[in-house]
Write a sequence for this structure.
């Protein structure tokens, strides 16, 4: 399980779409949210769009592995889908914001946390404005939120600078796949080898 | 700085040569040793071959960043060359055995430790015999040593299974390059970005 977070406007969405399209070992966890759909966003594909009441019911019945409030809306990760995809051997990507990411890491310490950043602050502002889907007031809110988030970047495992998107996709894939070879993620293999070697004693 | 270790006969040497040949960001630290040259090995290229007296003099004058004894011989890492290559921005590879590797990690905690293993015990024995450069007695010594080493694999960061060499080379390169994106290795970048973002306050 891995989490991709990043300031609004860093191109997390594009990165995640490209990973899913280019490689077949990934599955994307679809989040539930109370925010309104942006143009082109589909229920059950980009998000499960919920009313506040529906969302609060999901919290109560423990259908979410984490949830958080972010700029006046709820966001959460439905449990069922994640568990199913992990069982299929997929690397399950959670594209969630920082509060949720840190809660996930606490509950599931094996989770890999990646944080996507722009090459610099001006690029971030330009991308947010260029998106053209938010009011100036919301853009300001998102930039303020980004400033707060910089304080917690050190809680993440990897930092991915999104300058050129293709390069960023390749880099991110390499990071995720390399993590599979961490010694701690291969305890079983090491133990089998240890037993196997004993025949030379 | 990174260390590649592994049981004798796992193909560490081939792996390291391929990394140096295929990519231009690596430099190999040449070790000093008291063991005799194998056929084709050149002084100053594969090792600096030293007498016991010369080696002990290097220890006394602190010309080695680490040294260890392994199957009756001394092995050590001369300091000068490593520091020079790091200053050039290279990823400096130390192909050293486990004792030395763990000492290096203690002294320089940022060092990345990779351990190369065979897919299974039989493959290891077959490769050691196939090399045809050691007596059966030495092969037995090396296998016993390998059994001891399995206990310390968990002190390493990454495990690389050398089954197909080409795949192993690519995987190892991806692991090493991905490590450059660890958040802890990018403190300076994060601090610059944090300062840069403050202008949106």
């Amino acid at each position: 399980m891995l989490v991709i977070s990043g300031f609004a406007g860093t191109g997390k969405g594009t990165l995640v779409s490209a990973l899913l399209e280019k490689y077949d070992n990934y599955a994307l966890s679809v989040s539930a949210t109370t925010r309104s759909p942006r143009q082109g966003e589909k229920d059950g594909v980009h998000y499960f769009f919920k009313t506040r009441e529906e969302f609060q019911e999901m919290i109560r019945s423990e259908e979410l592995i984490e949830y958080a409030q972010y700029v006046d809306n709820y966001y959460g990760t439905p449990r069922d889908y994640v568990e199913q995809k992990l069982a299929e051997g997929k690397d399950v990507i959670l594209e969630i914001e920082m509060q949720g990411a840190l809660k996930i890491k606490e509950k599931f310490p094996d989770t890999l946390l990646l944080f996507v950043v722009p090459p610099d602050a001006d690029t971030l502002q330009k991308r947010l404005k260029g998106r053209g889907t938010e009011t100036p007031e919301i853009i300001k809110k998102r930039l303020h939120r980004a400033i707060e988030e910089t304080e917690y970047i050190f809680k993440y495992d990897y930092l991915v600078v999104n300058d050129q998107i293709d390069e960023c996709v390749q880099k991110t894939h390499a990071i995720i796949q390399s993590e599979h070879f961490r010694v701690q993620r291969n305890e079983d293999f090491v133990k089998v080898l240890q037993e196997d070697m004993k025949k030379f004693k």
